[in-house]
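Researcher: Batch entry, complex prediction.
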Amino acid sequence: MFQWMYCEHFQTYMKQFTLNLGIELINARWIRNMDDQTKNQQSVFNEPDLIQRLMGDTDLEKAVIAAFLSEIPELILQLKQFVDAGNIANARLQAHTIRGAAANLSAGNLRAAAEQIEELCKQDDLESCKPGIAVLETEFDRFTNVIGSLGLLHPLKEKA
Amino acid sequence: MTVKSLIVEDDFTSRLIIQRLLASYGECHMAVNGREAVAAFLDAIRSDEPYTLICLDILMPEMDGHQALKEIRSIEAENGIMIGDGVKIVMTTALGDMNSKLTALNASCDAYLVKPLDVNKMLETLRCFKLVD
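Model: Structure tokens for the complex:
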């Protein structure tokens, strides 16, 4: 995916485009060669993508996962409360926050579920948000299960 | 060069990722919405210890990033700081649509990074600004 940014140095601008395109091509080829189970797991949590974006910092990975696991249940609860109260504006903001956090954690399915709720809020369709929240909760449970299967469920306890 | 930065994010994981990168280069402050960001920016200007860099989310409660960006540039103009000489502002947001990008550009942001956050891209952005080696 092309992500542009202003930069005074033209060479760096071009390099960023080429680097992004290269990474996309490599990921596409790599994902095509994976088996279905791996693909399914990667759509829930793509750890290689997360590690790459954090430049291989596994300590940061653990800290971010711990923060995410701690933060998301409360955010989903607040989202439910906003939807139940008919507060579309805050529901949209909350869904957007969950979407951004899930994107940061390479939790693709969770990100997509949050984005769907955000779109429904933009369309003033609060009723459809309720089943959407059930999907969000299911995807968070799946994310937690995958994290657990990778031994990352209590990432900060390893240091103790 | 020391980078005094302000991270404006309502999401804890985003604050954590950005702060881990920027803490290596200098003082890091946090704000969770645009209103806090503008207040912190104004306070820094008045103390004669301005920020070098602001990482600014867009959709936030109380005041969004677009509004905060306008107000920060307005404060700079009132203090005689020309466009281009002020604080470097990087939008860090999940909004990847062209409209959001153009809105931010027209309000004089310096870069626009779409989430998921990528430490490498952020570092490259800082190098473009010549804030880090």
